[in-house]
Amino acid sequence: MSALGIDYGGTNTKLLLVDESGAVLARETVSTGTLAELGASVHRFLDTAPAAAQSFAVTVAGTLDPSTGVVRRSANLPWLDGVAPAEVLSESLGVPGVAVQDGEAGAIAEARFGAGRGSDEVFVIVLGTGIAGAHVLSGSVQRGAHGGAGEVGHVPVADNGVTCSCGQVGCLETAIGGQQVGLRWRDRGAENQDASARDVVEAAGSGDEAAVAVLGDAARALGRAILNVSALVDPALIVVGGGVSRSPEWTVEPAVAYARENATFHVVPELRLASLGVWAGAHGAAAVAADTFVGARAQADRP
Ligand SMILES: [Zn+2]
Q1: Which protein residues have a CB closer than 5 Å to ligand 1 (ion)?
Q2: Cβ(77)–Cβ(109) below 8 Å
Q3: Gap from CA of 271 to ligand 1 centroid (Å)
Q4: Is the pLDDT of residue 303 over 50?
Q5: Which residues contact 54 (CB under 8 A, 6 or more apart)?
Q6: Domain match, 282 and 157 both
Q7: 236, 190 in Cβ contact below 8 A?
Q8: For residue range 228-266, what is the model confidence (pLDDT) as tens digits?
Q9: What is the DSSP secondary structure assignment for residue 261, as one 8-state letter?
């Protein structure tokens, strides 16, 4: 049974065909287009692949109704709003498919095949423009009763007094979200009005005191978030990925040190950096496809 993972990104789409053991049979990156264009790209990909796909999963960058597979809103791929992409692709490809939220696919992949491999209970934090979190238990994301679990970006842990996009004050995202790091540097008097997190890291490396202070605030907020995750979830392992984690000496490492120094009853688990890079979403999607359809078949075969 081979499964196809489609990571339908804002710019590029990654296609990954795996066998039943999860070994990669073929992979390709194509430019992102409409669903009809994606269907044509997948047909071309499978024509030259060494095996046929028996099922697929497609990631959605946006909010998804998990019971119907209909996209509620996708900021980057607006033609998906109100559409069930897996249904459309399934008709074109002639095999069953399912949609999965992109952050969820990436978290599943990191927990099962990446940095979390071997641990049954993993909390994944992705430090991007926004902050995503997912509690992955035995390879599945725990969504909570209303689909809102894991929102670690919106735990109030920063002392900056900044109102977050969610309306609360001092969320983790206001301290360490990709663009927010640049804004906090500006708040401290930096002249660069559109600084990225990378700019702030470079300035800190050159001794800019405001940049060092901004990253210190960011690391402290992340450290407090790690304590909150430990208190509420008590995972065996925390995996951290995303652009802001690529300078761990300024962010992740001091955050873990803060958490260990300030832990009281908490057991601060081992923290590892994500390891799958840009293919995580496609790996996670392929795993979801195999779980969904092979799992369903296995159950149907039972007496
Ligand atoms: Zn918030």
Answers
A1: 154, 164, 166, 168, 171
A2: no
A3: 23
A4: no
A5: 1, 2, 3, 95, 293
A6: no
A7: no
A8: 999 999 999 999 998 888 899 999 999 999 999 999 999
A9: H
| Cβ–Cβ under 8 Å, residues 89 and 96 | no
DSSP letter at 164? P
What is the Å distance from ligand 1's center to 167 Cα?
6
Domain count, the chain: 2
Question: Would you state the structure tokens that stand for residue 117, as one six-digit string?
Answer: 């491999």
Q: Predicted ipTM? A: 0.99
pLDDT in tens, 12-52: 999 999 998 889 999 999 999 999 999 999 999 999 999 99
Neighbours of 207 (CB within 10 A): 8
User: CATH number, domain at 186?
Assistant: 3.30.420.40
Within a domain: 46 = yes
192 has pLDDT over 70: yes
Record the tokens describing residue 22, joined without a space. 């999860």
pLDDT digit string, tens, across residues 93-143: 999 999 999 989 999 999 999 999 999 999 999 998 889 899 999 999 998
Is the CB of residue 259 less than 8 Å from the CB of residue 223?
yes
Give residue 35's domain range: 3-106+278-301
Ligand 1 center–CA 12 separation, angstroms: 28
What is the residue type of 156?
A: P
Q: Tell me how far the alpha carbon of residue 274 lies from the centroid of ligand 1, in angstroms.
A: 23
CA distance 284 to 136: 12
Give phi and psi for 302, each to the nearest 5. -70, 145
**Torsion angle of C-alpha atoms 223, 141, 243, 155, degrees rounded to 10:** -40
Residue 71 Cα to ligand 1 midpoint, Å, equals: 22
Reported as a pLDDT band with limits 50, 70 and 90, residue 1 is confident
